[in-house]
Specification:
This protein is mainly β. It has one domain: Electron Transport, Fmn-binding Protein, Chain A (Pnp Oxidase, Chain A, Roll), CATH 2.30.110.10. It has 3 helices and 13 strands, in the order βββββαβααβββββββ. It has a 7-stranded antiparallel β-sheet. Strands 1-11-12-13 form a 4-stranded antiparallel β-sheet, with no helix packed on it. β12 and β13 form a beta hairpin. The chain is globular. The termini are far apart.
Length: 175
């Protein structure tokens, strides 16, 4: 069933922030993404919503796979900066100093070294027609890497536009 978006809803509001910022790789391209959630534990699945017009969206539709990384706070500048660069024209990993490694289960997508946790995923389904801004995807988790205990992590939290935080610290991204 396709749900047609309506214009009779209330204006967008950012009061649901902060969100734990994830870092996706698709092929060798990468981008930060805040719109994600676990939607099933058995089988283990994520839902992501990728903004339309992204080069990573083109690659996700082509390869039908992505890796979801949760990067430590110390990498926040490189993670956020990747969202302001086009993978169409730039090798983001090389330019930002990320080291890419092979995935266990994915054929085209590389993993970023230094992540706290990485989830290799394949596309189960794209959900068309429910947004004019985002393309939602249901992803099956096919491999997991990393075992950093939650109490030892310093997550990158997306607060709004250029503002980020972690436990006890705030940071503003400057382009």
């Amino acid at each position: 069933m396709v749900i047609k978006p309506t214009t009779d809803s209330v204006p967008y509001n950012t009061q649901y922030f902060p969100l734990h910022l994830a870092f996706l790789t698709v092929g060798e391209n990468m981008m930060p993404i805040a719109h994600w959630m676990v939607i099933s534990k058995e089988p283990f699945r994520f839902l992501i919503a990728m903004q339309l017009g992204n080069h990573s969206l083109t690659l996700l539709r082509k390869y039908q796979e992505t890796a979801i990384h949760f990067m430590p706070w110390r990498d926040r500048d490189r993670v956020v900066r990747a969202g302001y660069m086009s993978g169409d024209f730039t090798n983001k990993a090389e330019r930002l100093g990320f080291t890419l490694t092979s995935a266990d289960k994915l054929q085209h997508t590389k993993l970023v070294e230094g992540a706290d946790i990485i989830f290799e995923t394949t596309v189960l389904q794209e959900i068309p027609g429910i947004s004019h801004e985002f393309a939602p995807f249901v992803l099956n988790v096919v491999a997991v890497h990393g075992q950093v205990d939650a109490a030892e992590r310093d997550p990158i939290l997306f607060m709004k536009e250029y503002e980020f935080a972690t436990t006890g610290e705030e940071w503003r991204f400057r382009r």
